[in-house]
Amino acid sequence: MEGAPGDAPLGLSLSGLEREILRALRGATPGSPVGETDLMTRVSAPPDTVRGGLQRLRAKGWLVLEETSQERWVLTVRGREALAEGLPERRLLRLLERGPRTLEEIRGEGLDPDALTVALGQLKRKGLLVPGRSLALAADPPATLEEEEVLSRLDQGDLPVSSEVRTNLARRGLVTVERTVERRWSLSPQGASVSLEGAGPEGVGALTAQHLLKDRWRTLAFRPYDVRAPVPFVGGARYHPYLEWLRQVEEVLVGLGFEEYRGPIVEQEFYNNDLLFMPQEHPARSLQDMLALAGLEGGRIPAALLRSVAAVHEGRAPPRQRSALSPGWQTPYEESVARRVVLRSQTTAATGRYLASHPRPPFRMYSVDLVFRRDAVDAQHHLQFHQAEGVMGRRGLTFRHLLGLLEQFTHALGIPEVRFQPTYFPFTEPSVQGMVRHPTLGWIEALPGGMFRPEVLRPLGVKVPTAAWGIGIGRLALVALGLNDIRELFLDDLPRLSEWRF
Amino acid sequence: MPQSALSLERINALLPRPVSEETLRETLFRSKVEPGARLGDRLTVEVTPDRLDLLDEAGLARELSGLMGLARGMGYAFEPAPLPGVEARQNASVSPLRGEFLAVALEAPAGGGALDAGLLDEVIRFQELLHATTGRDRRAGSLGLYPLERLTPPFRYALEPLGQIRFTPLSSSQELAGKDFYQTHPLALRYGDLGRQGELALTLRDEEDRILSLPPVLNAATTGEIRPGDRRILVEATGTRPARVRELIGYMLLPFVERGWKAHPVPIHGPEGSRDGQEVLRPRRFTLAGAGVQRLLGVRLTAGELADHLQQARLAAEVREGRIQVEAPPWRPDLLAEVDLIEEVAVARGFGRFPPILPPSSTRGARSRSAHQEAQLREVALGMDFQELYTPVLIPGTAAGWGLTLSEPLALVNPVSTEFSHVRSSLVPGLLASLGRNTRSPYPQRVFELGTVVLREAEAATGTRTDRQFALVEGAAGTGFARAAAWAERLLDLFRLTAGREPLEVPGTIPGRCAQIRVAGEVVLWMGEVHPRILSELHLPEPVAFLVVHGSRLERLRPLASGVSAP
Q1: How many domains is chain A partitioned into structurally?
Q2: Model pTM above 0.80
Q3: I need a surface site. Which of A30, A106, A396, B93 has the fewest CB within 10 A?
């Protein structure tokens, strides 16, 4: 983050330490690099100081560094615990060997919810479970699971093991890679030939407070420096580049006349889905896609709003509204589903809350905030990402205004080309997908939006045409920041952040 | 999005004239189809969930021909008369298990067009896609297709004791006892519960008492097997959701009707009376007014132009007294109301023909008040040489258990992995984990985050409160509680607040080195020195101190009107 205290500028002149290092290396067997640990014993200075001297000499081109890194898979603390107490799947197998059991019974026998989730996943994948109300074994369990064997082998030494199983164990936090780097130093041709006797004129290196206070500087000669020589990198703290970019997005939206609104990230399904005319049976509402929270029972929903939303879902709208409304989803609407508590999967939930507060038209609201989906993490997917949500309503607003706004927004972000394609969302009609041109990927989906359906607006009491959009802003951020992997948005490598270029 | 791989050759065979792949891709950009890679004759397509009809080769050909102006109108004639004698009965006992039963009889055009191998493949593939989507993995509804010419109607659904059932599964020659089938067959293990009630199972039999299928699990060999050359096919659907069952039948008409087959209703006699079976075949009717189109799309179109666009969308449309009367075929369940027809107009016209215009602006944009305070906190942190980080809201159970929070983190019911199993209630664990990934970087290390946390709040409808938190964390030789307390004093001073520290016991800190600061009775800041147990777990070589600020409480107490004051 910052240079070590007392670092002097690099110069032609050699400090005592640097001379000592060069002498130590000249004393070693010619052609054989000296290990850094060994070198520490040959130089009479603290290790950190020696390291600083080594780096300075290397920057001058007088030393050559060879680094050899080694990786070794080792058990984590949890891995060692699992080896001692049994993996969750082994503990579940032991229980089921005594006969079929319901999930409640299994929890009652000491397998905690986290471990049970893991165990179910693993055993289902191996085909060892018979699904049903009671869990039972599909076959005799193997004496040793592949994971157990790998853990045991890794515990005994670094033996080659199947990378697939190892990756699975790493994902579960049971094994990890231990990296060690060995540094070996040798003299470069220039370093070997530099004279240690008359290296630079005598004189003072660093100007100190003592020199100034007592006017001693008047009698001192200062060693000249090689002003062309490399210097250490000066980093310093920075705002996180991704968050900073998000703030630029927000500034654009504020400039377009939108006011910020924030909603909770833990929502009842009513706000996350029902209010948006998402059918309660919609596949995206299953626990395969949304993240649910343990131990929370959703509370009451405002009764009048709940009644109105239930009516449009079931196609029971008042007769005078029926011409504009659909017959609904024709499935029973259940309040118990509406009350369920989840991590919100779309910032449109915030829009629903905003509109439920009955803003007076004209209105424009935005929310750049977090949403969560139950995705496996890879280069393109993460469980957590930002959406930039916007909604605007006024008399006379049309689909063409929505296209105009999306176009203006992308231009303001420096994206010159955008074109529009039909798409589908349960809560908007027409629905549009704005495609932007990526320099290498070509046209990519980036700007979904649409005009809210009457089934959304009527229960909320909104009587003006309303357009909405919810952009997965992370994808645009990758383009803007020159990244290829969505995980890099969570970059926390301090030197890299310090060196980040705008 | 749902996807499939379709035969380009077979799609072209259904078009009035063949089109190149390039033309096809360009045209599909205007639709709800996303063409993907091509492998041989097969083109992968993804469609939006409302247009499953486009996952069928005939459906895609219809869409293309409409958008390219090669064909217009619905091209489907409703046939109200059933085939003589073709009907079904539904025993009263089956209702609780599968509440809805519908069927249609399909008949090949005279003089050709019998089922061929290609159509058979397409139908089976489409059936499985429909089971997975509309059928909700057969729970909401499932389809069966049978060789009507080799069966003897009427058909009947009944619940029968497993002991009475002898069944030869499709693609097998071995007859099984009902019980054996349900205990051994892979599809029975997966779907058996949907068609069974204890020791009773749902059967579909013909007049000669032959089992056609055990819905919704599997058809029988011979009686439940359609083959190339067949000219009459029975399509039936059962399910728990009437709307989904109707949709399934409607979609399955498409590959046949588009090739000239006729669809006849199949009357079904049940405990609550008889149904003529026409409801699933009859086109649905709508009325569209030009004013609504102009209000939503922002373009003025004549009634004639609207009707023209709707016909391009392969719907029946005619102008009567200035309004457009529209009919939609059974495979378009996505059309629910006027706005859906307006979207059809927009898609058929092409989104490119709706020039974007800037919306009139009479609102003033603004960040939230908390955003203003947050900007100030970030500025303070940067001024103290703290690097900003962005860490996940979801944290592993191990970090949740470190005890570096004042509110117990919430666990997820269905985590994807142990790495993301809890919702953080404090920013400190995530920042600490980041230091753990930076042990090879130079020290001192100072990081901060301003982010979202979730706290328990029993009175709230969700049992939680989403809050914004600000945290400073420093790993450095010589750092400790005193450093964190000094940051707290600095912030209090900047925000013009005065308060004293109170001792606090938090498990993740060194006992006696943690404190909180209350203002007006509320804890606004707390700070401490991380316990070496946690540092050791993370292999952190230096001590770590932290400060946490509850953003919303700070904002409530002392909103700042202007910039940060000088110290």
Answers
A1: 1
A2: no
A3: A30
